[in-house]
């Protein structure tokens, strides 16, 4: 490892390893709850019941894997793009330890049932305070390092990282405002319709600024770096960035279509959701045009296909999402399994492919070596791709089926199906979905092995280097 | 000129902040200042201590992950669940619990639809009451006593009214009691659509005692009615309709009356002055079972009553209890 960056690189590696551990935990919990859906006997203890474990699944993957990877990879990108180590290396290391303690406490408290019942903001108030502290530490290091950079221009990835830092802070603090009622109990400061509106303003955008902007930062940095192809259009990335950052915050109300929320908020939310297709596809087109100079890279460069498939799922996700926001579509698929199908295309497709590819790039780079096995990486790619496609497709089919059955009428004008009749039709698809999840997990295990073996290889190389001068 | 912003991090960060705040202010902060975001229906009552304790349990168990609490203003949804949700129903809901996934049915209109005993049996063992349900069992809540001090702290935090006696009484209640109390108040602020009226109580069953209709009715009965009224109509959570005290009452239950009660539920029963309405009551099945199906159930009920009436009093009961042939 380069001596100037050695300490910071170890910190980055720490985040990547932490994210990997939380990924495995979150994925196994995901598999458990997917089986519980058709085998209720597997709710074998209160802490292991679906209602609690579903929250553990989303939080551990969103905050453990998601934020862990974002912290580590963003620190790496910031150092490369500012051409200098982090401004506060010790702070970043302290943040790493706090982060892991925080996620562990989240896991324990959520399993114990301490929850705010706000989607993606379930953690109770003491943990919220810890998260805000972590975020401030992250912001200070990122912005501080950028301020003392050794490169005049800020590259696209830095814009997205700054946007992430700002937006998550605003969103997280506002939605977690609560009335404390005990050491691990609180009530949302906002009531009823207002509570719903604040929550989905948060809920939609926390996904946007945790699973979109930092992932785009990774895409814009690691994709050109790993392929050696410069980004096709700087101008397009400027337009896409500003319209995305401006447009995103208007859209949360599309989660509340046909709810008691005032119509004008729903409609305005839907309009901006449609608008958001443009900046999203700005990045997709930029990615395609970049590889367009040499599509052969998809064959020769093993990381290119991760990034291109990743951005493809981002493109599909950002067309499917706005379609779902339309009232006529929402009334059919809202509340059904279509929605988890949609979410998992984004997380298992776009986010997982881009993050794992970025890690494949970073780990060998930090050790000045190569990936342990390109073959394993390819196996990982195909497993997670197949797993994700089956998962999402079964979700969409089940969702349309159940939505249609809920609405079906007899010739006499009465409801055609009881609720249970619509539910039991999901069972066969839920079996397939668990199988899809298992395939995905096997793929991720292959990834973890590949990363660990690469690190082992890198460390052996390092030990050899430091031993050589001593022997001489 | 504008290009310079990409080499000025502070200006850039401020510009991003402005962009992020624009939508947040219009869509999130500004609506807060409008009265339409703070409506309260006249009939809406604050949670009692027991109900809030139940809501805490509902939150803790993540019920919101599978159950929505908002009926959309869509025709079939209103038929299935009841009146669509109004903004003014949720003034005390911190946080809102509308949910985003309907793995189980919506609960916004669940209050008062079924008796407490149904909920007790269902929460303790969902599959016994609703075969093939995928809901986890929560029987263990019956053993968990409430902690009055913490419920009081929660009521204080929310500024909800209570008396010292109400808090003291919590010591004898369990989490299950609380959850049922919470469930039974869901949707209380919106008046239920009265199902009475519109039924012809003198209507005659078009299927009479046709064996095909009785057989088809038996299947429908097993699906929708047996849970509460027993496999053969001896009663359980709901009353027996073949017990002597009913059968011997002159003129009890015309075919039209039975049809009306099945289609319209407890409201109809009350309207036509029939006794036996315990806590909660019977849900209307008119939206789920087409009229032909309801008439076939009536045929089945009639067949059961005839069958029971022809036997020696007491004899069949013992056979039933010992699991003898029937």
Question: What is the element layout, followed by pairings?
Answer:
The complex is a heterodimer of chains A (472) and B (326).
Chain A: H1 6-36, H2 50-82, H3 89-111, H4 125-147, H5 156-175, E1 178-182, E2 185-188, H6 192-211, H7 213-227, H8 234-248, H9 263-275, H10 277-292, H11 297-300, H12 302-325, H13 327-333, H14 338-367, H15 374-407, H16 419-424, H17 427-471
Antiparallel strand pairs in A: 1-2
Chain B: H1 9-32, H2 49-60, H3 75-81, H4 116-124, H5 126-129, H6 148-158, H7 164-169, H8 175-185, H9 211-224, H10 226-229, H11 244-247, H12 255-264, H13 266-271, H14 291-309, H15 315-321
Helix pairs in contact in B: 2-6, 2-8, 4-8, 9-14, 12-14
Helix-residue proportion of chain B: 40-55%
Q: Which fold does the CATH topology of the largest domain in chain B refer to?
A: Cytochrome Bc1 Complex, Chain D, domain 2
User: What's the total count of β strands of chain A?
Assistant: 2
- Give the averaged pLDDT of chain A, no decimals: 96
Helix share of residues of chain A?
A: over 70%
**What do the pLDDT scores of chain B average to?**
86
Assembly state (oligomeric): heterodimer
Tally of separate helices of chain A? 17
Largest interface: A-B, 94 and 87 residues
Using only C-alpha atoms, the radius of gyration of chain B works out to 26 Å
**Largest sheet descriptor of chain B:** none
Which CATH architecture of the largest domain in chain B is right? Orthogonal Bundle
Helix vs. strand class of chain A: mainly alpha
Strand/helix succession of chain B: HHHHHHHHHHHHHHH
Strand order of the largest sheet of chain A: 1-2
Our count of domains of chain B comes out at: 2
Strand content of chain B: under 5%
Secondary-structure-derived class of chain B:
mainly alpha
Q: Enumerate the spans of chain B where pLDDT stays under 50 for 5 or more consecutive residues.
A: 312-326
Distance between the termini of chain B: 92 Å
